[in-house]
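Please decode residue identities from the backbone states below.
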């Protein structure tokens, strides 16, 4: 049945190659691994693979519609050409027609096509090479920023005879804009469909890849693979900061919308980026809890920085991450400055007890307000412009600033002052405070001030009497009668 036009001769080289193939088949039959027995021939600009498969090897690549392959038949140049695999996974070959290679590796396709040509050729020696791979469709779900299905176009690598570069797990995760801060990168799974059975599940440990450089964990993907990234059961802040610098995490400069509530100057929604939010280096570093507090104007004097919470939505519900910024200040534990992700909510609670010594330390941090404006009005001898004080300033500091309450001010009431405060709920409170300039921070006598507090300094009793006398006696003039003067005196001493 062989076409007489083909010059097919069994020469010594062909016979030798045939014998080698027979020997290889014998080795396989004896139980040796395929990778030790045969190899598909490499063409310049194409990819071939040794027999056998593993997560990191390209020989496990499965052919499908859209792939372009080169089929060579030794000493039959008329049949050697490029073919494109059709959408149904078959390739239309001369003399034999359609042959299905869908879901087959290059080695398997070589055997199938060789067997098909044996019906029309005597002992054909067939080589199949991949010339151009089709785009791969892979899914990425779970703890990634943008889960979904992605199309990856394969590209050629460097070199004079470049080969196709196959995508890996980390490359697919980057397409999904990186893992979230609660991703369990130790237990990633790759589900791989099988043509004749249930999906094959491959385990990936990217933590081992990061810590030990085990590149075999970054496995090569195949068409229709699905990467599943679970939620970590126990969040570890130190580990989260370590894999935040990996190239499969979101870039630090990526803006993240968060909310911050509680004891901060301006609660609300903010967009946080990496770096110091108050300088030109705003895109350096990571977007963290401290960056967000800076945007919110800093903590208030009543903030409990030991009990801050970051509430994070995960694929399994809300996860609460505790943050202790006092530990960060005390021991330099940078892991407490949690890296934020899209949608986080920061809760800064109110402290039950304010420690005066700690208040002084907090006022000098970069997450405290840069300063507060205080208004001192009434019997003062200097400008009524707002008084700018440190964030932890007390009532006594405000009174002695600018000479407001100095002994040269003889009109001021020195025993008490009034403090008017605008509350966060829109109400205002007013209370009278006994003045003792020797007191330290004391909520009753020398409280810490808040932004826009107003201190009212009243007149002393003697000054009130003198001012009243001046108001009464002032109108008396030459035209005033005696009886009118007596009425004024009578009214004064009623």
């Amino acid at each position: 049945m062989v076409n007489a036009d083909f010059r097919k001769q069994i020469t010594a080289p062909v016979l030798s190659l045939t014998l080698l193939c027979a020997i290889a088949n014998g080795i396989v039959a004896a139980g040796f691994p395929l990778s030790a027995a045969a190899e598909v021939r490499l063409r310049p600009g194409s990819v071939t693979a040794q027999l056998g498969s593993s997560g990191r090897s390209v020989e496990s690549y499965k052919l499908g519609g859209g792939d372009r392959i080169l089929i060579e038949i030794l000493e039959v140049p008329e049949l050697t050409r490029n073919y494109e695999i059709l959408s149904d996974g078959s390739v239309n070959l001369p003399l034999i027609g359609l042959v299905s290679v869908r879901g087959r590796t290059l080695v398997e396709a070589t055997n199938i096509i060789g067997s098909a040509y044996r019906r029309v050729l005597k002992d054909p020696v067939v080589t199949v090479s991949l010339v151009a791979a089709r785009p791969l469709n892979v899914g990425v779900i779970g703890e990634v920023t943008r889960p979904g299905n992605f199309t990856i176009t394969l590209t050629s690598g460097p070199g004079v005879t470049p080969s196709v570069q196959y995508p890996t797990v980390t490359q697919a995760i980057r397409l999904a804009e990186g893992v979230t801060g609660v991703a369990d990168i130790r237990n990633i799974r790759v589900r791989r469909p099988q043509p004749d059975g249930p999906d094959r599940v491959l385990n990936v440990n990217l933590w081992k890849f990061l810590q030990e450089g085990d590149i075999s964990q970054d496995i090569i993907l195949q068409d229709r693979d699905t990467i599943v990234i679970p939620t970590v059961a126990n969040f570890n802040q130190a580990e989260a900061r370590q894999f935040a610098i990996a190239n499969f995490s979101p870039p630090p400069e990526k803006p993240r919308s968060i909310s911050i509530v509680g004891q901060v100057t301006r609660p609300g929604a903010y967009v946080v980026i990496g770096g110091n939010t108050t300088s030109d280096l705003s895109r350096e570093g990571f977007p963290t809890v401290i960056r967000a507090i800076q945007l919110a104007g800093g903590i208030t004097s009543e903030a409990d920085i030991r009990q801050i919470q970051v509430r994070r939505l995960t694929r399994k519900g809300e996860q609460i991450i505790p943050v202790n910024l006092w530990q960060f200040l005390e021991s330099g534990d940078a892991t407490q400055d949690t890296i934020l992700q899209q949608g986080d909510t920061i809760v800064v609670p109110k402290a039950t007890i304010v420690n005066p010594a700690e208040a002084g330390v907090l006022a000098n941090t970069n997450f405290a307000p840069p300063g507060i404006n205080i208004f001192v009005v009434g019997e003062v001898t200097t400008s009524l412009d707002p008084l700018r004080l440190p964030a932890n300033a007390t009532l006594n500091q405000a009174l002695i600033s600018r000479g407001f309450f100095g002994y040269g001010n003889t009109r001021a009431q020195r025993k008490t002052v009034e403090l008017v405060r605008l509350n966060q709920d829109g109400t205002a409170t007013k209370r009278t405070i006994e003045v003792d300039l020797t007191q330290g921070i004391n909520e009753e006598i020398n409280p810490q001030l808040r932004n826009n507090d107003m201190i009212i300094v009243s007149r002393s009793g003697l000054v009130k009497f003198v001012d009243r006398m001046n108001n009464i006696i002032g109108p008396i003039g030459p035209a005033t009668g005696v009886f009118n003067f007596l009425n004024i005196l009578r009214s004064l001493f009623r």
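Observation: The longest strand covers residues 197-204.
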